[in-house]
Structure formats: C-alpha cells, structure tokens
Write a structure and sequence with these properties.
Elements: E1 7-13, H1 24-42, H2 46-68, E2 72-80, E3 83-85, E4 89-98, E5 107-111, E6 122-125, E7 133-141, E8 146-150, E9 153-158, E10 165-169, E11 174-179, E12 197-199, H3 201-208, E13 215-217, H4 229-235, E14 239-241, E15 246-248, E16 250-255, H5 270-287, E17 291-296, H6 316-325, H7 336-344, E18 348-355, H8 360-369, E19 375-381, H9 393-408, E20 411-416, H10 422-435
Parallel strand pairs: 3-11, 16-17, 16-18, 18-19, 19-20
Antiparallel strand pairs: 1-2, 2-4, 4-7, 5-6, 5-9, 8-11, 9-10, 12-15, 13-14
Helix pairs in contact: 1-2, 5-6, 7-8, 8-9
Transmembrane segments: 49-67
Region (Disordered): 437-463
Keywords: Membrane, Transmembrane, Transmembrane helix
C-alpha cells in the first residue's frame, strides 16, 4: 500500500499553561525563589529577597508566555507499505505543518510504537515558520508477525530556558500488518494433472449425461438456435443450452493451530513454521488457478473469500495474509471441526494439511474423511524435535504411527523436522505423487492404480 493510501491529517492547538507544565528545572527555580524570598524576609536581607523574586517570576513568566501562544500544528502520517513480511522494514513518513500565523518554538516530536517494532522515534524540530512544513522519516521492523498500531503522535513545546514544557497529543493511529514469511514454491504439481482452470465440459458430461448437461429454462431474448430439444421434450418446458463454463479446481488448506499440538517458543516454534507454510501453500495454489479455502481445526474458514473463484480479484492474497498475521493458537483438543468440514467435501480436488502432534484417534479420523476423488497431502511435523535434543521414544513412536495411519488412508505424508525448508519438502511431495499413485493397502504399500480420468484421484506413496 502506497503512502498516499494510508494517511490522516489532524490539528492540535498549543494554547494552555499550568504549573503541571513546569519541568524539573522550572520547579527547582520556583522552589529556590520562594525559599530565597522567605529567607530574605526572615533576615531582612533585601538583596536575597530580590534574587528570590527574580527566580520565582522567571518560570511564571514562561508559563504566561506559552499560555498566550496560539499555535496550530497539522500532522500527516503515511506508511509505506502498510503490510510487510516478517523481518522486512516499513517506512513511516511524518509531515508536520504550522498552520498558525505565528512561528512555533522548538518542537520535540515523539511517535508511539509497540516495543516489538523498536524504540520510540524522537525528533527535535527547530522553530517552524508560519505555514512551514517539516518532514521526518523513520523505519520500523518486526521479527514477530501481528497487527501493530502506530501512534498517536505526541508534541512537546518548550521555552528557551527549559523551564516549561507543554505536551499535546494527536489521536490518529495507523495499523502496520506484519505477515508470516512466505516462501516461493517450485512449480512442481502435487495434485491432479488437471488442476487449475480449464474447460469442465467433459467432466460434467460424465457425471450428468449429455441430455442434462448445460441446460436451463428459456428466457426472453435467448437465441432459438440454442434450444435443447431433447431436454425440452423430457421436461415439457422450453430449455436452452448454457454457455460453456470454466471449471476451477478447489484446494483446502488445513492449518493445525492447537496449542497442545505445537512445541517451542517465538519465531522458531513449530506453530510459526506451520503458519508460514500455510501462507506459502495457499498463495502458491491461488496463483496457479485454484480456488483456495483455508481452514483451522475448528472448521472455521480463515478468509472470508474462501472457496470463491473470484477471490483473486478481491485481493485474496492480502486478505489471507492479514488473517494469518493475527492467527493464534487455540484451546481445541481435537481436529473434530476440520474433519466435519472435510467430510462434507465441497468439490475439493486437493487437500493439504499442515499438522502438529497427532494422536492415534485424530490420525484415524483424518484418514477416513478424505474423499476418493480428492488428493491428500499432509505435512506432518515432528513437534517433539522442536524442544531440542532427541525426542522421547514414546513421542517418536506416536509420530511414526500417526504418519502410517494417514498413509494407509491414502494421504501422501511428508515428515517435517526443525530446519527443514518448505520448498524442498514441496518438491519431495511432488516426486512421491508422480512416482507412485494408487490405492494404499493395509500394510501401507502402494498398489498400481488404474488409469484415471480427468477427475481421477492421486493418492500418496509410503515414505
């Protein structure tokens, strides 16, 4: 997002002056003056009395001067860009303008930013002439994804002696979205060969029959040459052929966000690896013509444009990244919600799951919900390895057993360990799919598959 698309203008009035605006130096002058005046009257020492009066009057005069000063400052903030990836920098542009008729004093500018973006930027602006402008730029970056508010901007006006300081704050805030790291994946297909966009006439005919395909009721203005006489005779109503439609393959990405399924802390945790992988896979599939739906274990779609063929035109990528920037771990114990959604199907030709630690029951249920016409790819994370050291034998046995259950259910399983890179794992999943496909026997060995039609399913091979 460009700077001109994320900006606001506000005014702040510099009138006002109270004893609360005294700085430490101003309070010291006032206290010293009062003490000197008291001592001068007590000891009848006129020189000390004059000195005390001068010290007392100086901060009071400074307050009066600033109180009578009318200055109005306009501020405009712009982010460039307003959405960045983890570890990338964003530039924040501030433009301050003195819209009053009098020059301002020295301005101390401080913008409030969350600590994860770095220290608060502070600037000193010398006297700003009437209608004068000052521009400042600072950079922010974060190694932690999320949505962070910048602002409000605070201004402090001080007198030349530093005795009084008046603070004014703007109210506008702007959001900076730090998205998960996205990896560029190779163009190796992990789904069916017919994936992506293409003409769906042959597939639809095979499912519905030539007499029923592509017909609808006649509407005023339809070309009579498009009348489908067989359907008209059967239904008793005038039917016309539809225009040939475009088929779009659908892919569902399942992201396991259960807190009990992940290990590690911070950016190096297994959960962050899963979020980054889900973002990379979803964007990769969307760019290759798939209608993408991103689900969590609760069964809720992460993006509002999920499974919408027009999502790409509605900035699907931006909505997806914004949603994943703020996704958090859930308290769910099982994958029941996601299994229910996958069991319903919905025309998915490919399901890709990024999974944490699975129990035997979760793996068995997930293996059963895959449809026979759907390719399933599971990136199974050995989350016990994220704790460092050698995983316990029990955890390792559960991981191996869960992966085997998924393979028996027809899933193509790719094991993930700390340090593994998603592009390499993606190529591995593609090689396994092209090297051996078919039904998986009870022992987990793949048997040759019969030649599949355009809608044939491609299943996984044992690792």
């Amino acid at each position: 997002m460009s700077a001109q698309q994320n900006q606001s203008t506000e005014n702040t009035d510099g009138r006002g002056g109270r004893l609360a605006g005294l700085t430490t130096r101003g309070r010291s002058f006032l206290a010293a003056g009062l003490a000197a005046m008291a001592c001068g009257m007590l000891f009848d020492y006129k020189v000390l009395l004059r000195v005390g009066a001068m010290l007392t009057m100086l901060p009071l005069i400074a307050i009066m001067v600033l109180a009578r000063t009318r200055y109005r400052v306009s501020c405009r903030r712009a982010l460039e860009p307003a959405r960045v990836g983890v570890g990338q920098e964003a530039r924040v542009h501030l433009r301050l303008e003195n819209v009053s008729r009098l020059p301002s004093g020295t301005l101390l500018v401080e913008d409030r930013v969350p600590y994860v973006l770095g220290s608060r930027p502070r600037f000193v602006l010398n006297k700003v002439e009437p209608n004068g402008r000052r521009r400042v730029v600072y950079r922010v970056r974060s190694d932690v994804r999320g949505r962070y508010l910048l602002g409000p901007l605070a201004l402090r006006l001080a007198d030349p002696f530093g005795l009084v300081e008046l603070s004014r704050s703007f109210s506008a805030q702007h959001a900076l979205t730090v998205t998960p790291q996205v990896h560029a994946l190779p163009n190796a297909p992990v789904g069916q060969a017919w994936s992506g966009r293409g003409e769906g006439h042959a597939t639809s005919v095979a499912a519905a029959g030539e007499d029923d395909i592509g017909t609808r009721e006649y509407r005023h203005g339809d070309d009579l040459r498009r009348v489908h006489w067989r359907s008209t005779a059967r239904t008793g109503e005038l039917m016309v052929r539809r225009e040939e439609q475009v088929w779009q393959s659908r892919a569902t990405i399942l992201l396991d966000t259960r807190a009990i399924a992940h290990r590690g802390d911070g950016p190096a945790s297994s959960f962050e690896w899963a979020v980054s992988s889900a973002a990379s896979i979803a964007l990769h599939m969307a760019r290759h013509g798939y209608a993408v739906r991103l689900l969590t274990e609760t069964g809720q779609a992460v993006t509002a444009a999920a499974h919408d063929s027009s999502a790409v035109g509605l900035d699907f990528e931006g909505m997806l990244l914004d949603a994943l920037a703020v996704v958090e771990m859930s308290n769910a114990a099982t994958l029941a919600g996601a299994n229910a959604m996958l069991r319903q199907g919905g025309g998915d030709s490919l399901v890709i799951a990024v999974l944490g630690d699975l129990s035997g029951d979760d793996a068995s249920e997930l293996a059963r919900v895959r449809h026979s016409t759907t390719s399933g790819v599971a990136f199974a994370m050995d989350t016990a390895s994220w704790l460092g050291g050698k995983p316990m034998a029990q955890a390792q046995a559960r991981f191996v057993g869960s992966a085997q259950v998924l393979r028996v259910g027809g899933w193509r399983v790719v094991e993930v360990e700390p340090g593994d890179r998603l592009p390499e794992l993606w190529e591995l999943a593609a090689r396994r799919g092209s090297g051996m496909s078919g039904s998986v026997g009870a022992a987990g060995t793949a048997t040759p598959a019969a030649p599949a039609g355009p809608a044939g399913a491609e299943v996984g091979a044992a690792r």
